[in-house]
Design a protein that fits this description.
This protein is an all-alpha fold and about 450 residues long. About 70% of the residues lie in helices and about 0% in strands. It contains 16 helices and two strands. The protein has a two-stranded antiparallel ribbon. The two termini are about 30 Å apart.
Protein backbone atom coordinates (compact mmCIF):
# COMPACT_ATOMS: atom_id res chain seq x y z
CA UNK A 1 0.00 0.00 0.00
CA UNK A 2 2.97 2.33 -0.14
CA UNK A 3 4.64 4.58 2.39
CA UNK A 4 2.71 5.21 5.54
CA UNK A 5 2.86 8.05 7.99
CA UNK A 6 2.72 7.73 11.75
CA UNK A 7 -1.06 7.89 11.62
CA UNK A 8 -1.17 4.79 9.41
CA UNK A 9 -2.48 6.69 6.41
CA UNK A 10 -0.56 6.79 3.15
CA UNK A 11 0.50 10.33 2.30
CA UNK A 12 0.18 9.50 -1.40
CA UNK A 13 -1.76 6.25 -1.88
CA UNK A 14 0.26 3.71 -3.82
CA UNK A 15 3.64 4.84 -2.48
CA UNK A 16 6.45 5.27 -5.00
CA UNK A 17 4.45 4.00 -7.96
CA UNK A 18 1.54 6.21 -6.99
CA UNK A 19 3.83 9.22 -7.05
CA UNK A 20 5.31 8.18 -10.38
CA UNK A 21 1.87 7.91 -11.93
CA UNK A 22 1.13 11.42 -10.66
CA UNK A 23 4.21 12.47 -12.62
CA UNK A 24 2.66 10.81 -15.68
CA UNK A 25 -0.53 12.84 -15.15
CA UNK A 26 1.46 16.07 -14.81
CA UNK A 27 3.59 15.77 -17.95
CA UNK A 28 0.68 14.35 -19.95
CA UNK A 29 -1.55 17.30 -19.13
CA UNK A 30 1.14 19.91 -19.62
CA UNK A 31 1.45 18.66 -23.18
CA UNK A 32 -2.31 18.50 -23.61
CA UNK A 33 -2.58 22.07 -22.33
CA UNK A 34 -0.02 23.23 -24.90
CA UNK A 35 -1.92 21.61 -27.75
CA UNK A 36 -5.44 22.28 -26.49
CA UNK A 37 -4.81 26.02 -26.45
CA UNK A 38 -3.36 26.12 -29.98
CA UNK A 39 -4.94 23.26 -31.95
CA UNK A 40 -7.58 25.39 -33.68
CA UNK A 41 -4.96 27.98 -34.62
CA UNK A 42 -2.60 25.30 -35.95
CA UNK A 43 -5.23 23.66 -38.14
CA UNK A 44 -6.45 27.04 -39.37
CA UNK A 45 -3.20 28.93 -40.02
CA UNK A 46 -0.65 26.15 -40.58
CA UNK A 47 -2.70 23.33 -42.14
CA UNK A 48 -5.07 25.87 -43.77
CA UNK A 49 -8.27 23.95 -42.98
CA UNK A 50 -11.77 25.38 -43.02
CA UNK A 51 -14.03 25.58 -39.96
CA UNK A 52 -16.01 22.50 -41.01
CA UNK A 53 -12.83 20.47 -41.48
CA UNK A 54 -11.52 21.46 -38.05
CA UNK A 55 -14.82 20.46 -36.49
CA UNK A 56 -14.69 17.13 -38.30
CA UNK A 57 -11.23 16.38 -36.89
CA UNK A 58 -12.36 17.15 -33.35
CA UNK A 59 -15.55 15.10 -33.70
CA UNK A 60 -13.70 12.15 -35.25
CA UNK A 61 -11.25 12.10 -32.34
CA UNK A 62 -14.17 12.08 -29.91
CA UNK A 63 -15.94 9.22 -31.69
CA UNK A 64 -12.72 7.18 -31.82
CA UNK A 65 -12.36 7.70 -28.08
CA UNK A 66 -15.68 5.93 -27.56
CA UNK A 67 -14.11 2.74 -28.90
CA UNK A 68 -10.75 3.31 -27.21
CA UNK A 69 -12.05 3.14 -23.64
CA UNK A 70 -13.49 -0.43 -23.64
CA UNK A 71 -10.72 -1.73 -25.93
CA UNK A 72 -7.99 -0.51 -23.60
CA UNK A 73 -9.75 -1.88 -20.53
CA UNK A 74 -10.18 -5.30 -22.12
CA UNK A 75 -6.50 -5.49 -23.05
CA UNK A 76 -5.52 -4.63 -19.47
CA UNK A 77 -7.28 -7.77 -18.18
CA UNK A 78 -5.09 -9.91 -20.47
CA UNK A 79 -1.70 -8.18 -20.71
CA UNK A 80 0.64 -6.34 -18.29
CA UNK A 81 -1.06 -3.06 -17.48
CA UNK A 82 2.01 -0.81 -17.53
CA UNK A 83 3.09 -2.14 -20.94
CA UNK A 84 -0.35 -1.62 -22.44
CA UNK A 85 -0.56 1.90 -21.01
CA UNK A 86 2.91 2.80 -22.34
CA UNK A 87 1.95 1.47 -25.78
CA UNK A 88 -1.11 3.72 -25.93
CA UNK A 89 0.98 6.71 -24.82
CA UNK A 90 3.40 6.00 -27.67
CA UNK A 91 0.43 5.78 -30.05
CA UNK A 92 -0.67 9.24 -28.92
CA UNK A 93 2.86 10.57 -29.49
CA UNK A 94 2.98 9.13 -33.00
CA UNK A 95 -0.45 10.56 -33.80
CA UNK A 96 0.61 14.01 -32.60
CA UNK A 97 3.85 13.86 -34.56
CA UNK A 98 1.92 12.72 -37.62
CA UNK A 99 -0.08 15.94 -37.58
CA UNK A 100 3.21 17.80 -38.06
CA UNK A 101 4.18 15.85 -41.15
CA UNK A 102 1.21 16.49 -43.44
CA UNK A 103 -1.45 18.99 -44.44
CA UNK A 104 -3.51 16.38 -46.27
CA UNK A 105 -6.95 16.28 -44.67
CA UNK A 106 -7.35 12.50 -44.96
CA UNK A 107 -4.04 11.88 -43.20
CA UNK A 108 -4.85 14.51 -40.58
CA UNK A 109 -8.15 12.73 -39.99
CA UNK A 110 -6.41 9.38 -39.50
CA UNK A 111 -3.95 10.91 -37.04
CA UNK A 112 -6.79 12.56 -35.12
CA UNK A 113 -8.67 9.27 -34.92
CA UNK A 114 -5.55 7.46 -33.66
CA UNK A 115 -4.91 10.18 -31.11
CA UNK A 116 -8.50 10.18 -29.81
CA UNK A 117 -8.51 6.37 -29.59
CA UNK A 118 -5.25 6.34 -27.63
CA UNK A 119 -6.26 9.23 -25.41
CA UNK A 120 -9.40 7.57 -24.02
CA UNK A 121 -7.71 4.18 -23.70
CA UNK A 122 -4.81 5.72 -21.79
CA UNK A 123 -7.23 7.58 -19.53
CA UNK A 124 -9.03 4.37 -18.55
CA UNK A 125 -5.76 2.48 -18.00
CA UNK A 126 -4.27 5.26 -15.86
CA UNK A 127 -7.36 5.16 -13.67
CA UNK A 128 -7.25 1.36 -13.50
CA UNK A 129 -3.62 1.46 -12.37
CA UNK A 130 -4.48 3.97 -9.64
CA UNK A 131 -7.36 1.76 -8.52
CA UNK A 132 -5.10 -1.27 -8.23
CA UNK A 133 -2.24 0.37 -6.34
CA UNK A 134 -4.35 2.52 -4.00
CA UNK A 135 -6.73 -0.19 -2.73
CA UNK A 136 -9.46 1.16 -0.47
CA UNK A 137 -7.89 4.64 -0.69
CA UNK A 138 -8.70 4.77 -4.42
CA UNK A 139 -11.02 7.78 -4.20
CA UNK A 140 -8.40 9.91 -2.47
CA UNK A 141 -5.76 8.84 -4.98
CA UNK A 142 -7.97 9.72 -7.95
CA UNK A 143 -8.67 13.11 -6.35
CA UNK A 144 -4.94 13.82 -6.00
CA UNK A 145 -4.39 12.61 -9.57
CA UNK A 146 -7.12 14.87 -10.90
CA UNK A 147 -5.72 17.85 -9.00
CA UNK A 148 -2.26 17.27 -10.46
CA UNK A 149 -3.75 16.82 -13.94
CA UNK A 150 -5.65 20.12 -13.68
CA UNK A 151 -2.50 21.89 -12.52
CA UNK A 152 -0.61 20.41 -15.47
CA UNK A 153 -3.28 21.55 -17.91
CA UNK A 154 -3.11 25.08 -16.47
CA UNK A 155 0.69 25.15 -16.77
CA UNK A 156 0.50 23.98 -20.38
CA UNK A 157 -2.17 26.56 -21.15
CA UNK A 158 -0.10 29.36 -19.61
CA UNK A 159 2.95 28.31 -21.61
CA UNK A 160 0.84 28.26 -24.78
CA UNK A 161 -0.56 31.71 -24.01
CA UNK A 162 2.97 33.07 -23.61
CA UNK A 163 4.00 31.50 -26.93
CA UNK A 164 0.93 32.85 -28.70
CA UNK A 165 1.89 36.30 -27.46
CA UNK A 166 4.76 36.19 -29.95
CA UNK A 167 2.17 36.80 -32.66
CA UNK A 168 3.68 34.39 -35.19
CA UNK A 169 2.46 31.06 -36.55
CA UNK A 170 6.02 29.72 -36.30
CA UNK A 171 5.38 28.78 -32.64
CA UNK A 172 2.40 26.50 -33.37
CA UNK A 173 4.39 23.44 -34.52
CA UNK A 174 6.45 23.66 -31.33
CA UNK A 175 3.29 23.39 -29.25
CA UNK A 176 2.36 20.19 -31.07
CA UNK A 177 5.91 18.87 -30.72
CA UNK A 178 5.73 19.56 -26.99
CA UNK A 179 2.50 17.58 -26.83
CA UNK A 180 4.13 14.59 -28.55
CA UNK A 181 7.18 14.83 -26.26
CA UNK A 182 4.93 14.79 -23.18
CA UNK A 183 3.45 11.44 -24.25
CA UNK A 184 6.91 9.92 -24.75
CA UNK A 185 7.94 11.16 -21.30
CA UNK A 186 4.74 9.68 -19.84
CA UNK A 187 5.52 6.32 -21.48
CA UNK A 188 9.06 6.29 -20.06
CA UNK A 189 7.82 7.05 -16.54
CA UNK A 190 5.10 4.42 -16.86
CA UNK A 191 7.60 1.72 -17.81
CA UNK A 192 9.46 2.53 -14.59
CA UNK A 193 6.40 1.70 -12.49
CA UNK A 194 5.91 -1.73 -10.94
CA UNK A 195 3.29 -3.92 -12.56
CA UNK A 196 -0.10 -3.83 -10.82
CA UNK A 197 -1.97 -7.10 -11.04
CA UNK A 198 -5.74 -7.36 -10.77
CA UNK A 199 -6.78 -6.63 -7.19
CA UNK A 200 -9.94 -7.79 -5.44
CA UNK A 201 -12.71 -5.24 -5.77
CA UNK A 202 -13.59 -3.96 -2.34
CA UNK A 203 -16.58 -1.99 -1.21
CA UNK A 204 -15.81 0.09 1.84
CA UNK A 205 -18.46 0.19 4.52
CA UNK A 206 -19.59 3.23 6.39
CA UNK A 207 -19.74 2.04 9.99
CA UNK A 208 -16.51 2.26 11.93
CA UNK A 209 -15.49 -0.78 13.87
CA UNK A 210 -17.52 -3.20 11.74
CA UNK A 211 -16.39 -5.60 9.03
CA UNK A 212 -18.76 -7.42 6.75
CA UNK A 213 -18.18 -9.78 3.87
CA UNK A 214 -20.49 -10.62 1.02
CA UNK A 215 -21.13 -14.13 -0.16
CA UNK A 216 -19.96 -14.92 -3.71
CA UNK A 217 -22.61 -14.47 -6.39
CA UNK A 218 -22.76 -15.36 -10.07
CA UNK A 219 -21.56 -12.31 -12.00
CA UNK A 220 -21.31 -11.86 -15.77
CA UNK A 221 -17.60 -11.63 -16.58
CA UNK A 222 -18.49 -9.49 -19.58
CA UNK A 223 -19.85 -6.05 -18.64
CA UNK A 224 -21.95 -6.18 -21.82
CA UNK A 225 -24.07 -8.89 -20.18
CA UNK A 226 -24.47 -7.03 -16.89
CA UNK A 227 -27.60 -4.94 -17.44
CA UNK A 228 -27.38 -3.22 -14.08
CA UNK A 229 -23.84 -2.03 -14.76
CA UNK A 230 -24.78 -0.85 -18.25
CA UNK A 231 -27.69 1.09 -16.77
CA UNK A 232 -25.31 2.63 -14.23
CA UNK A 233 -22.90 3.62 -17.02
CA UNK A 234 -25.76 5.25 -18.92
CA UNK A 235 -26.80 7.37 -15.94
CA UNK A 236 -23.19 8.27 -15.17
CA UNK A 237 -22.72 9.50 -18.73
CA UNK A 238 -25.64 11.89 -18.20
CA UNK A 239 -24.09 13.14 -14.94
CA UNK A 240 -20.93 14.07 -16.88
CA UNK A 241 -22.79 16.85 -18.70
CA UNK A 242 -21.05 19.40 -16.50
CA UNK A 243 -18.14 18.91 -18.92
CA UNK A 244 -20.19 20.18 -21.88
CA UNK A 245 -21.42 23.12 -19.81
CA UNK A 246 -17.88 24.43 -19.33
CA UNK A 247 -16.57 23.50 -22.77
CA UNK A 248 -19.51 24.84 -24.79
CA UNK A 249 -22.58 25.98 -22.89
CA UNK A 250 -21.35 28.62 -20.45
CA UNK A 251 -19.34 30.64 -22.96
CA UNK A 252 -21.95 30.65 -25.73
CA UNK A 253 -24.83 31.36 -23.35
CA UNK A 254 -23.00 34.24 -21.65
CA UNK A 255 -22.12 35.88 -24.96
CA UNK A 256 -25.34 35.27 -26.89
CA UNK A 257 -28.11 35.45 -24.32
CA UNK A 258 -26.98 37.58 -21.37
CA UNK A 259 -25.83 41.14 -20.74
CA UNK A 260 -22.74 40.00 -18.82
CA UNK A 261 -19.43 41.48 -20.04
CA UNK A 262 -17.58 39.12 -22.37
CA UNK A 263 -14.47 39.38 -20.21
CA UNK A 264 -16.31 37.47 -17.48
CA UNK A 265 -16.21 34.22 -19.45
CA UNK A 266 -12.48 33.46 -19.12
CA UNK A 267 -12.66 34.46 -15.45
CA UNK A 268 -15.38 31.83 -14.85
CA UNK A 269 -13.37 29.16 -16.66
CA UNK A 270 -10.28 29.97 -14.59
CA UNK A 271 -12.43 29.90 -11.45
CA UNK A 272 -13.58 26.40 -12.37
CA UNK A 273 -9.98 25.21 -12.66
CA UNK A 274 -8.87 26.91 -9.45
CA UNK A 275 -11.76 25.46 -7.43
CA UNK A 276 -11.08 21.95 -8.70
CA UNK A 277 -7.37 22.20 -7.86
CA UNK A 278 -8.10 23.61 -4.40
CA UNK A 279 -11.09 21.50 -3.36
CA UNK A 280 -11.09 18.15 -5.17
CA UNK A 281 -8.88 16.39 -2.61
CA UNK A 282 -10.73 17.73 0.47
CA UNK A 283 -14.08 16.83 -1.10
CA UNK A 284 -12.88 13.29 -1.79
CA UNK A 285 -13.06 12.62 1.95
CA UNK A 286 -16.83 12.92 1.71
CA UNK A 287 -16.87 9.81 -0.50
CA UNK A 288 -14.22 7.77 1.29
CA UNK A 289 -16.60 4.81 1.65
CA UNK A 290 -18.99 3.32 -0.87
CA UNK A 291 -22.07 4.21 1.18
CA UNK A 292 -20.92 7.80 1.56
CA UNK A 293 -20.12 8.06 -2.14
CA UNK A 294 -23.66 6.95 -2.97
CA UNK A 295 -25.09 9.50 -0.52
CA UNK A 296 -23.28 12.29 -2.42
CA UNK A 297 -25.76 11.78 -5.26
CA UNK A 298 -28.26 13.83 -3.26
CA UNK A 299 -26.19 17.06 -2.98
CA UNK A 300 -25.10 16.40 -6.57
CA UNK A 301 -28.77 16.49 -7.54
CA UNK A 302 -29.12 19.90 -5.86
CA UNK A 303 -25.98 21.25 -7.54
CA UNK A 304 -27.26 20.44 -11.04
CA UNK A 305 -30.70 21.91 -10.29
CA UNK A 306 -29.19 25.15 -8.95
CA UNK A 307 -26.76 25.39 -11.89
CA UNK A 308 -29.50 25.02 -14.48
CA UNK A 309 -31.76 27.53 -12.72
CA UNK A 310 -28.93 30.06 -12.40
CA UNK A 311 -28.09 29.78 -16.10
CA UNK A 312 -31.74 30.44 -16.93
CA UNK A 313 -31.93 33.42 -14.57
CA UNK A 314 -28.79 34.98 -16.07
CA UNK A 315 -30.73 35.89 -19.21
CA UNK A 316 -33.34 37.89 -17.32
CA UNK A 317 -31.29 40.70 -15.80
CA UNK A 318 -28.82 43.44 -16.67
CA UNK A 319 -25.03 43.15 -16.57
CA UNK A 320 -24.77 42.96 -12.77
CA UNK A 321 -27.48 40.36 -12.24
CA UNK A 322 -26.37 38.37 -15.27
CA UNK A 323 -22.81 38.29 -13.95
CA UNK A 324 -23.98 37.25 -10.49
CA UNK A 325 -26.13 34.41 -11.80
CA UNK A 326 -23.40 33.21 -14.17
CA UNK A 327 -21.00 33.19 -11.22
CA UNK A 328 -23.50 31.14 -9.22
CA UNK A 329 -23.95 28.76 -12.15
CA UNK A 330 -20.19 28.31 -12.54
CA UNK A 331 -19.81 27.53 -8.84
CA UNK A 332 -22.76 25.12 -8.87
CA UNK A 333 -21.57 23.23 -11.95
CA UNK A 334 -18.02 23.11 -10.56
CA UNK A 335 -19.39 21.60 -7.36
CA UNK A 336 -21.31 19.11 -9.53
CA UNK A 337 -18.11 18.29 -11.43
CA UNK A 338 -16.17 17.53 -8.25
CA UNK A 339 -18.96 15.58 -6.52
CA UNK A 340 -19.72 13.54 -9.64
CA UNK A 341 -16.06 12.63 -9.97
CA UNK A 342 -15.94 11.29 -6.40
CA UNK A 343 -19.14 9.28 -6.85
CA UNK A 344 -18.02 7.90 -10.20
CA UNK A 345 -14.55 6.87 -9.01
CA UNK A 346 -15.98 4.79 -6.17
CA UNK A 347 -19.15 3.28 -7.64
CA UNK A 348 -17.63 2.30 -11.00
CA UNK A 349 -15.07 0.16 -9.16
CA UNK A 350 -17.40 -1.12 -6.42
CA UNK A 351 -19.85 -2.37 -9.05
CA UNK A 352 -17.16 -4.30 -10.97
CA UNK A 353 -16.15 -7.93 -10.30
CA UNK A 354 -12.46 -8.50 -9.43
CA UNK A 355 -11.83 -10.77 -12.42
CA UNK A 356 -12.74 -8.14 -15.02
CA UNK A 357 -11.80 -4.75 -13.59
CA UNK A 358 -10.29 -3.54 -16.85
CA UNK A 359 -13.25 -4.56 -18.99
CA UNK A 360 -15.75 -2.97 -16.61
CA UNK A 361 -13.84 0.28 -16.20
CA UNK A 362 -13.39 0.34 -19.97
CA UNK A 363 -17.15 0.19 -20.46
CA UNK A 364 -17.52 2.87 -17.79
CA UNK A 365 -15.12 5.03 -19.79
CA UNK A 366 -17.29 4.39 -22.83
CA UNK A 367 -20.14 6.27 -21.14
CA UNK A 368 -17.91 9.24 -20.42
CA UNK A 369 -16.48 9.23 -23.94
CA UNK A 370 -19.99 9.15 -25.39
CA UNK A 371 -20.87 12.20 -23.33
CA UNK A 372 -17.91 14.04 -24.82
CA UNK A 373 -19.36 13.47 -28.27
CA UNK A 374 -23.04 14.04 -27.40
CA UNK A 375 -22.74 16.53 -24.54
CA UNK A 376 -22.04 19.59 -26.73
CA UNK A 377 -25.26 18.83 -28.64
CA UNK A 378 -27.22 18.84 -25.37
CA UNK A 379 -25.63 22.13 -24.33
CA UNK A 380 -26.37 23.81 -27.68
CA UNK A 381 -29.93 22.46 -27.54
CA UNK A 382 -30.38 24.11 -24.13
CA UNK A 383 -29.04 27.37 -25.56
CA UNK A 384 -31.43 27.17 -28.52
CA UNK A 385 -34.39 26.56 -26.17
CA UNK A 386 -33.59 29.65 -24.11
CA UNK A 387 -33.88 29.96 -20.31
CA UNK A 388 -36.42 27.12 -20.17
CA UNK A 389 -33.87 24.88 -21.88
CA UNK A 390 -31.29 25.40 -19.13
CA UNK A 391 -33.85 24.91 -16.38
CA UNK A 392 -35.00 21.69 -18.06
CA UNK A 393 -31.42 20.45 -18.52
CA UNK A 394 -30.60 21.05 -14.87
CA UNK A 395 -33.79 19.34 -13.73
CA UNK A 396 -33.25 16.35 -16.03
CA UNK A 397 -29.70 15.73 -14.82
CA UNK A 398 -30.84 16.22 -11.21
CA UNK A 399 -33.51 13.58 -11.74
CA UNK A 400 -30.87 11.24 -13.17
CA UNK A 401 -28.95 11.59 -9.89
CA UNK A 402 -31.98 10.25 -8.04
CA UNK A 403 -32.36 7.42 -10.55
CA UNK A 404 -28.75 6.37 -10.05
CA UNK A 405 -29.11 6.67 -6.27
CA UNK A 406 -31.88 4.06 -6.41
CA UNK A 407 -30.26 1.95 -9.14
CA UNK A 408 -27.12 1.11 -7.15
CA UNK A 409 -28.84 0.61 -3.80
CA UNK A 410 -29.60 -3.10 -4.18
CA UNK A 411 -26.15 -4.33 -5.26
CA UNK A 412 -24.40 -2.23 -2.63
CA UNK A 413 -26.78 -3.51 0.05
CA UNK A 414 -26.11 -7.09 -1.07
CA UNK A 415 -22.37 -6.48 -0.76
CA UNK A 416 -22.82 -5.35 2.83
CA UNK A 417 -24.59 -8.58 3.91
CA UNK A 418 -22.52 -10.08 6.77
CA UNK A 419 -20.94 -13.47 6.10
CA UNK A 420 -21.25 -16.27 8.68
CA UNK A 421 -18.73 -16.10 11.51
CA UNK A 422 -15.46 -17.82 10.62
CA UNK A 423 -16.29 -18.01 6.93
CA UNK A 424 -13.27 -16.90 4.90
CA UNK A 425 -14.56 -18.06 1.54
CA UNK A 426 -16.63 -14.94 1.09
CA UNK A 427 -13.63 -12.69 0.80
CA UNK A 428 -12.28 -12.40 4.34
CA UNK A 429 -8.98 -13.76 3.06
CA UNK A 430 -8.85 -10.89 0.58
CA UNK A 431 -8.72 -8.23 3.27
CA UNK A 432 -5.46 -6.33 2.98
CA UNK A 433 -3.61 -4.17 5.51
CA UNK A 434 -4.77 -0.60 5.15
CA UNK A 435 -8.20 -1.46 3.74
CA UNK A 436 -10.70 0.14 6.07
CA UNK A 437 -13.63 -2.25 6.55
CA UNK A 438 -13.17 -3.64 3.05
CA UNK A 439 -15.25 -6.46 1.66
CA UNK A 440 -15.21 -8.37 -1.60
CA UNK A 441 -17.96 -7.12 -3.89
CA UNK A 442 -19.71 -8.64 -6.84
CA UNK A 443 -22.68 -7.40 -8.76
CA UNK A 444 -25.95 -9.33 -9.10
Amino acid sequence: MGNVTGTGRARIPGGRDGRRMLGVALVDRIGSGLWGATSVFYFTYVSHLGLGQVGTLVSAAGVAGIAGAPFGGRLADRLPLTRVLAAFQVLRALAAAGLLLTDDFTLLLLCSVAGGFGDRAAGVLTRLYGTRIAGSDRVRYQAVNRTVANAGWALGGLAAAAALGAGTTAVYPYMLLGDAASFIAAAVITLGCAEAGAAPVVVTGGAAGQETASAPQAVPVSPWRNRRYLAYVGTDGVLCLHDAVFKVGLSLWAVRATDAPHGLVPVLLVLNNVLVVALQVPLSRLGATTDRARSLLLPLCAAFAVGGAAMAAAAAGGPVLASAFLLLAAIAFTAAEMLQAVVSWELSVALAPPTAQGAYLGVHGLGQATQRAVGPLAATAAIAAGPAGWAALGAAVAATCLVQHRLVRSPLAAAATPAPAGDTSAGGGLHRPGDDHAVDFVTP
